[in-house]
Amino acid sequence: MIDALDPGGPVNSVPPNDVHAAWLPPEAFRALGSRRSLVCGEGTLVDTVRDEIARACVRYGGSTDRPHPRPDRRPADDRSAAGTAYDLVLALVPAGLLPIAAAAVDVVYRRRYGAGTLGEEGFLLARHTEVTVVLAEAPAGLLYGLFHLVRLGESAFGLTRPMELHRPAMRLRMLNHWDNIDVHPVMGQVERGYAGGSIFWQDGARREDLTRVGAYGRLLAACGVNAVSVNNVNVHATEARLLTDRLGDVAAIADVLRPYGIRVHLSVSFAAPVMLGGLSSADPLDEAVREWWADATKRVYESVPDFGGYVVKADSEGQPGPFGYGRSHADGANVLADALSPYGGVVHWRAFVYNHRQDWRDRSTDRARAAHDHFVPLDGQFRDNVILQVKHGPMDFQTREPVSPVIAGMPGTRLAVELQVTQEYTGQQRHICYLAPWWSEVLGFGPWGDDGPTVAAVAAGASVGDAAERGAAGDGGGLVAVSNVGDDPFWTGHPLAQANLYAFGRLAWDPRLAPTAVLDEWIELTFAASAPNGLGLVRRVLRAIMDDSWRTYERYTAPLGVGFMVHPGDHYGPDVDGYEYSRWGTYHFADRDGVGVDRTRASGTAFTGQFPPPWRDVYESVESCPDELLLFFHHVPYGHVLHSGSTVIQHIYDTHFAGVEQVVAMRQQWERLAGVIDPGVHARVRERLDEQVRCATEWRDQINTYFFRKSGVPDAHGRRIH
Ligand code: GCW
């Protein structure tokens, strides 16, 4: 727990005392707070920068100035009013008279990069004549520069530093909350939430006290997130009204997030004109419907002038949509886009559209194909302010999936890639599963092979024909993820799941960051206080536990990319046939001879044909298909030999035994931190590791037993199978 210091002032966004400080404990500001600094510039976000530094200075004895209001009285050198030299200058440029060091850095910046290069959110960091200088051309850049300094700590003030220019790869770095206002009878306050209640809503109303939301905004700004949608994409009756008579709630949340550069977005129901407006139809081509959206949107902007836009789940899992009126998803998205466009807002239109009432006997329908089948024919028909939000895999956030072929299929559409930080299918924040290595693989994947743009580049705005790498943000849709935060004192239920939230923001800012480097950043910040003498040990233990934890999770759960062997409904723990005869389109087809889904063009659903070369052929052939996706694309006999040299059945046994051993080792490693870190964190993680060992054992035994009974093939090593 933190010992928060609140000096008052306009920004009051430190978490309450009983809430964990996550990656911003006061100690993370030690280097900043003990320096003499000057902040030049005006505006809400610049005030936030000043307040952050002032708060740190109260604690660590530094000082912070603002330029003298009369330009002729400003110190032209790098000295504070008290006559001592500044250690740090953060300045918006061009901003009148700058101290010498900042002015010198500004000259180099202009010469080397050209004015305007930093843009809306970028910043430049340099060290000149023993002064650390951060320059930005817009207030948000200064804010991100501040948090970069926090990450660097003392090293920001080292003797020399080369000049660094930082700009986000993605313009939109957004979290979706699946939070309900009313407690849903099945899904609860937060759908797929594993961290308690919602920080926004409680029992049918907005929370009176939004301090926690402000503290959340601060954490998000510190890892680079700049947009949040505040309600579930499944929009129920009460939540629909956020668009109209409950708009005040949205405005109140926006007010609290604004000082951290975070825009608020809203999930809306496609049927809003009927549900809220009393119209007889929500047909997007009906003039009255268009007018209704235009009016409703105008009122939204009167309350929230910097409102980000709408998120829409339409014709998906029971949500209403344009299909109900015989219209296309482009018709549907464009009517909302037209309403938002005068104000600069965007529509995030989700591509997660599939038949959720499939007959399991029907082998002609393949859920993996659905998004591509529905959306690719519409490429080029969406307005410029429509962002098609595509789940990174073709199914649904399973532990291993190929990259969705939609990402390669719509060069004429702005695409956002959607990740799931909340661990619905990856252990529900009871299991340690550091997801950055996986996201990094997805973002670095080349849908057209190694020479074309990566998934990250597509999300940033590149399309086929562009080079593999892309520097700054283009006009792509960016990165979106489902948040894992709730009102739990540790924010994310499992304290180590905070690393996933942090890593999402960092990868959205720079997808090329190494997951291990991001983990190190998170460790240094988060454990700065609890382990002043033991940080090295904390780092070693956490790396040993977390670095490979996604692959460990993969080892003891569904094998070789097959997916959906989870318990239906809550999606926790094993139930191998739980979804086998259901309507959800999620089957593994295990029988006595083999397992897997034939998605080839030759004999299966032809899903492989949705990929461009080389992947359409790599996946098509059982010889070239990567082992980890084999059962996603092929139905193979248990004796099929993998590239690894093992048979499918022996691989299943081996990985499941190994996975549990690794979890047991994680549990042992964790004990090394007893007495080294905060006891509250230690106890919570220990309790969850006990559950992880139990659940992993259950996975191992059910999966191994199931496949032993199906195949009759014994384990080559004679280990115990039930
Ligand atoms: O993974 C599924 C979840 C649903 C969710 C849906 C979606 C919000 O099980 O709970 O609904 O995805 O992404 O819309």
Automatic annotation (TrEMBL):
<feature type="domain" description="Glycosyl hydrolase family 67 C-terminal">
    <location>
        <begin position="492"/>
        <end position="719"/>
    </location>
</feature>
<keyword id="KW-0119">Carbohydrate metabolism</keyword>
<dbReference type="InterPro" id="IPR011100">
    <property type="entry name" value="Glyco_hydro_67_cat"/>
</dbReference>
<keyword id="KW-0624">Polysaccharide degradation</keyword>
<feature type="active site" description="Proton acceptor">
    <location>
        <position position="396"/>
    </location>
</feature>
<dbReference type="InterPro" id="IPR029018">
    <property type="entry name" value="Hex-like_dom2"/>
</dbReference>
<feature type="compositionally biased region" description="Basic and acidic residues">
    <location>
        <begin position="65"/>
        <end position="79"/>
    </location>
</feature>
<dbReference type="GO" id="GO:0045493">
    <property type="term" value="P:xylan catabolic process"/>
</dbReference>
<dbReference type="Pfam" id="PF07488">
    <property type="entry name" value="Glyco_hydro_67M"/>
</dbReference>
<dbReference type="InterPro" id="IPR011395">
    <property type="entry name" value="Glyco_hydro_67_aGlcAse"/>
</dbReference>
<dbReference type="GO" id="GO:0033939">
    <property type="term" value="F:xylan alpha-1,2-glucuronosidase activity"/>
</dbReference>
<keyword id="KW-0326">Glycosidase</keyword>
<dbReference type="InterPro" id="IPR011099">
    <property type="entry name" value="Glyco_hydro_67_C"/>
</dbReference>
<feature type="region of interest" description="Disordered">
    <location>
        <begin position="60"/>
        <end position="79"/>
    </location>
</feature>
<dbReference type="InterPro" id="IPR017853">
    <property type="entry name" value="GH"/>
</dbReference>
<dbReference type="GO" id="GO:0046559">
    <property type="term" value="F:alpha-glucuronidase activity"/>
</dbReference>
<feature type="domain" description="Glycosyl hydrolase family 67 catalytic">
    <location>
        <begin position="166"/>
        <end position="491"/>
    </location>
</feature>
<dbReference type="Pfam" id="PF07477">
    <property type="entry name" value="Glyco_hydro_67C"/>
</dbReference>
<comment type="similarity">
    <text>Belongs to the glycosyl hydrolase 67 family.</text>
</comment>
<keyword id="KW-0858">Xylan degradation</keyword>
<protein>
    <submittedName>
        <fullName>Alpha-glucuronidase</fullName>
    </submittedName>
</protein>
<dbReference type="GO" id="GO:0005576">
    <property type="term" value="C:extracellular region"/>
</dbReference>
<feature type="active site" description="Proton acceptor">
    <location>
        <position position="424"/>
    </location>
</feature>
<dbReference type="InterPro" id="IPR037054">
    <property type="entry name" value="A-glucoronidase_C_sf"/>
</dbReference>
<feature type="active site" description="Proton donor">
    <location>
        <position position="317"/>
    </location>
</feature>
<keyword id="KW-0378">Hydrolase</keyword>
